[in-house]
Amino acid sequence: MRRFSSPRDRLLAAVLLLACMGAGCVSTSNKWVSLRTTPRNPLSESLGLLTKQGPEPTERTVQLLRRLDLEGSLKGDYGDLLAQLAEIDKREPSREHVYAMAELAYVGAHRADQSKQCGEALELYGSAVLHAYRYLFDEQYAVASNPYDPEFRRACDLYNAALESTLRIVQTQESLRPGRSLNIKTATHDCQLEIKLKGNGWHEDDFDHFEFVSDYEVHGLANHYHKYGLGVPLIAVRRKHEGMKPEEEFYPESLSFPVTAFLRVTPALTPDSMPRHAVLELHDPLDEPSVQVAQITIPLEADLSTPLAHTLSQPSLDDTRLSTLGLLNPSKIKKLQGLYMLEPFQGDKIPVVMVHGLWSSPVTWMEMFNDLRSDPQIREHYQFWFYLYPSGQSFWFSAAQMREDLAHMQQALDPKSQFPALDQAVLVGHSMGGLVSKLQTLDSGSQFWATLSERPFAELQADEELRNGLARTFFFDPDPSVRRVITIGTPHRGSEVANDATRWLGRKLIKIPSMIMQGRHQLVARNPGYFRKDAPLDVTTSIDSLAPESPLWPVMLSAERGPWVKYHNIVGEIPKKGITGWFVGGTGDGVVSLVSAKLDDVHSQIVVPADHVSVHRHPKSILEVRRILMQHIAELRSFPYGSETSQNRVH
C-alpha cells in the first residue's frame, strides 16, 4: 500500500488542491458582467428620469424660462418651446439659452421615447446633441463656457446621453458599422450620417456589432476603469473575416474591445436651420484618448473594464473549463495552446507576456491586466500578450513549447526584424508559469541533459520524432528578445505539496497523452543502462515535476543565464492570523514555502501578504510589476532599444 505523507504534508496537499481549485474558480463563475434593469444614465438624478412624474428640467432652466415669461410653455409642445428659445437666442445670443434648449430637448425626447414616438424622440435627441455641442464649442458667443460651472458638466452629460439614445434608435433601424453612410429620417428633416473609424488598430471588417457599456454592470473585476469626457463608450464585438492580418491569428475566438463614439457636427447652412450632415467617429480609447474640436483638446469618455469583462463572459473563455481541461486532459487543450492578444498588435510597444500557473489559464491575469492597462504611462509603452499551455504536463515540456510559440509569433509579426521594441520583452509568470518563463532565458549547456544521462545525446536510440522532442526540451539557448523575467509565487526549489499523496492523486486524475507514455517506454526499452537511476523519466505530470527532490532544481538555479536578462521576484506569505495562518502562516503562501520562493541573485525581491491563489492579484504585486515596467522604460531611455541590433533574434 502507498505510504501517505505526514499530517503536515496532508494539510499542505489539501491546501494545494483547494488553492488549485480556487485558481481555476476565483472570479470565473462566467458572470463577469450582467445586464442592468435600467441603463446607467448620468442625468437620472438631475432630470428625475426614474421618478413617477417622469423627467423634468432642472430648476435653473425653469428659472430661465420664468425670467423669459416662457414657464407656461412647459405644459405645451416642446418643439414650440424650443423654437421660441431659438428666436430669443438669435436676438440675444447666450450660452445659457443654448444649454436650456439642450436640456429641454432631452426631456422632451425622453418623454417621446417612453411613449414609443420614435420619430419625435429621434428629432429631439438629435436637437439635444446639437445644442449641447454648440454650448460646449460654438465660438459665436461672447462669453466662453465655464468649466467650473456645474452646468458645463451637465452639458457634457446631455451630449453623451442624447447621443447614446440617438444611436440606440438608429441601431434598431440600421446597422452601425464603420464605413457606412446612413440617411436618418427625423420628424422634420433628413440628416446624412457618416460612420468613420479612427485610429490604426482595428479596421472596418473587424466589427460585427456594438453594445452599450451603460447596459452592463461589471462583477468579476475588483476595479472598474471609466474615464470621463465626451462620447459614448461602446463594446465592439469582433468578427472573423477574410483577408485577416498576421496578428489576427492571435486574437481569441470571442473578443470584445472598447470603442468611443463621438459625433462631430457639421454646422448648418443658416443659423435657423438644422444640420444636414454629421460624422460619427469611432475611436479606440486605448490609442486615441482625446479628440480635437475647435482647436481644443477634448478627452473622450471611455470605459476599459466593461468590454474586458464582456470578453471574459464568453463561453469559449470560461476559465474553469480551460483550467481544468489543461490540467486533467492536456491533449485536449493542445489546439488552444499558444499566445493570445486582447488588443491590436503595435510594433512600437514592448510585449509583456503573462504566463499562468498550475490549474489555471490566462484569465487569472485579468485583475493585473485591467489595472496595468488603465495606466496611461504603461499603455504608452507596453502591449500585453498571454500564454496558454496545458498545465497538467511537466513544466519543462511547456517551456519547450513556449520557446517554439514565441519564435512563431516573432516570425509572424516581424519577419524582417523591423520592430526593436519586440526585442525588449518582459515575461511575468505566476507559480509554475514562473518556471516556464525563467526557462526561456537559460542556456541549457549539457547540464539539463545530464539529469537524464551521463552519456552523450548522440548515442540515444529513439525514433526521430522522439529524439527531436527531447532535443528541444533539454538543449536550448536563452531567447535574446526576453530582457526581464518577473516571477510571482514561484517554487524555485519545488513545492512540498508535491508529495506522495498529491503525486499519486495527480497520476490518477491527469490523463497523460499516450504519445508521452509510449515514448517513455520506448526510451527505456531501446536504451538499457543508458539513463541515470534518478533520471526524471517517470515524471509524467506537472505535480510530479514540482517535487523538491527533482534533480532539475539545482540545474535551474546554477544554469548560465542570458547576460542581458534581469530577474525580479515576488513572494507570497500568509500572515499569522486566522485558521490558515495558524497552520502555515509565516512559512510561505500555503503552496510554496519561503525557502523555495525566495532567490538570492535577483535585481529585486519583495514579500507580499497573500496566499498562493491571490498573490499575483494583490495590489502590492501589481504595483511592484508596474514599478519594474517603469524601471525598464527608464533604463531604456539611457540606452534606447532602437539603437540595439536584433540580428541575434532566434526564430
Describe the structure.
The protein is of the alpha/beta class. The chain has 21 helices and 21 strands. The strands form six sheets. Strands 13-15-14-16-18-20-21 form a seven-stranded mixed sheet, with helices on both faces. A six-stranded mixed sheet has the order 2-3-9-8-7-4. It has a two-stranded antiparallel ribbon with strand order 1-5. Helix 4 packs antiparallel against helix 5, helix 4 packs parallel to helix 6 and helix 5 runs antiparallel to helix 6.
- What's the CATH topology name of the largest domain? Rossmann fold
**Helical run tally:** 21
What summary fits the major beta sheet? 7 strands, mixed
Overall strand count:
21
Tell me the β content. 15-25%
Describe what is shown at a glance.
With 651 residues, this protein is of the alpha/beta class.
Helix and strand arrangement:
Blueprint: H1 7-25, E1 33-35, H2 59-67, H3 78-91, H4 95-114, H5 118-137, H6 150-173, E2 181-185, E3 190-197, E4 207-212, E5 216-218, E6 226-227, E7 232-238, E8 256-265, E9 277-283, E10 290-293, E11 296-299, E12 302-303, H7 305-312, H8 319-328, E13 338-341, E14 350-355, H9 366-373, H10 376-381, E15 382-388, H11 395-413, E16 425-430, H12 432-438, E17 442-443, H13 447-450, H14 464-474, E18 482-488, H15 500-509, H16 514-526, H17 542-545, H18 552-558, E19 560-561, E20 566-572, H19 578-584, H20 594-597, E21 604-608, H21 619-638
Parallel strand pairs: 3-9, 14-15, 14-16, 16-18, 18-20, 20-21
Antiparallel strand pairs: 1-5, 2-3, 4-7, 6-12, 7-8, 8-9, 10-11, 13-15, 17-19
